[in-house]
Amino acid sequence: MSMTQIVTDEQHDIITKPMSKKYQSFPQIDLPNRQWPSRTITDAPIWCSVDLRDGNQALAIPMSVDEKIAMFQLLVDIGFKEIEVGFPSSSQIEFNFLRRLVDENLIPDDVRVQVLVQAREPLIRRTFDSLQGTKKAILHLYNSTSPIQRQVVFDMSKQEIIDIAVNSTTLVKSLAPTLPDTDLMFQYSPESFSATELPFAIEICEAVADTWQPTPEHKMILNLPATVELATPNVHADQIEWFCQNIRNRDTVLISLHTHNDRGTGIAATELSLLAGAERVEGTLFGNGERTGNVDLVTVALNMYSQGIDPHLNFQNINAVRLAYEQGTRMLVPPRHPYAGDLVFTAFSGSHQDAINKGMAAQNNKTDPLWDVPYLPIDPQDIGRTYEAIIRINAQSGKGGVAYLLEQEFGFKLPKAMRVEFGKIINDMADKLGNEISSLQIRKSFEQTYLKANTPFKLEKFRTQLLNNNDSDRSVRCEADLLIDGKPHTIQGYGNGPINAFMQGMKEELVPEFRLLTYSEHSLQKGSGAEAVAYIQIRTPSDETFFGAGTDTNIELASIKALISALNRALSRA
What we know:
Radius of gyration: 35 Å
Number of helices: 18
CATH class of the largest domain: Alpha Beta
Largest sheet: 8 strands, parallel, barrel
Oligomer: single chain
Number of strands: 14
Strand content: 15-25%
CATH superfamily of the largest domain: Aldolase class I
CATH topology of the largest domain: TIM Barrel
Distance between the termini: 51 Å
Number of domains: 3
């Protein structure tokens, strides 16, 4: 079956029917004076990790208690001060996990654990049992409020839904004194807020708040979840701003976000909703969660960091965070995942590689610390990544990337024209192999092309003598022992320096006329015994140019080896 035959006629008829009969656009919010488009995020929100609840319940194999402990410690190390540790009334393992955190004194004094509970009396009482002995906690109560949930799932009126929330809040308030040593915060979520009529969302939240009676000094949390992402991010921001403008006693509540990613815009919805007035964000590492996941807190936090905002979360070793996450969840972070993926700081495109190479050089020479490198929104080293993987080579790559790798990993600083010559060689290799070329393969090709170009000429010994005469063009005499196609041969020549003398000797005895076009050299390492490298470019009688390279602890010998390398490459093409 060809690519054009994957859809049958019957399937085509189905998918091309008018969508207006099956789907409809989400209604816009009447908010003519919206303020969020002109605002800027200037401070980090309150972060709450829900990895141990949303993230865990989305796993094919849920974490064991020991794995949960390890994940909890990871979240603490990153810097989360609010961590939802599960749904302790839902199963014994969830209950046991919280009890182990408490009994083994694993919760730092500055960390507030959060527990989720449905608005049902037996579950609420069981949840209070799990919280015994906690120092700081959030009890997170929820019930569904959207029309489809009210009508199809619960078959209840709006008032009956409000009664469930209010009666459950009353129970929570009555049980709060049973935790005398716990600094208890109360959080309410109108689940499916994203699909709930805004006036009803206000009505039920105000009814809950009137029951709990928060104050500016002792606020409650109103968590407004995009349980299912139904519209573009600007619509969610409008919902949040409308809610913030209309909720009574706004100074007594914290507005919290909990976005999912069904439309792939959970991060954008979160960022815009922070502009709209929200103060708190619930989410998970790398976006793990039901369906397409929760909002990715790593990306949201590092997006802020890239704008000069301290996120108050520590991702200075993003690789270690990713490894711990992958081990605990058995999920993999995709190679193109923002900031943490294997390839996000990697360029294969030749033009990108060239720009990064030049940008890095310019950054190193700047006097101010402001980061400004093409294609790299943040310095990879800030999150524990290295520059080694920024540029990788395949058939799409160019001379800049090859030169960058040779310099960064092996110390070879190729002349500009040589980058073009060798870049073409590596590009041809990538085309032939059809896959990525490693830095070691590039180094090996450089050695084979230049440093080991020993046919037909191979240098065995080289000696120079400074002559006492007034002829500056013949002030140096050289003698070189060569192998020519394996046979020994000695030449001598005169010139104004070792390279010139060797050139004259080769021209007189062995090779046609050629001209030296460029010469450069540099040390490969620091110190008195450092190896040096020389690069020489020659032009042949047929007007072709060839580079050669040579290395030695003696720069004079490195230069002669580079000249022989260039001659051998030219003769191999003759």
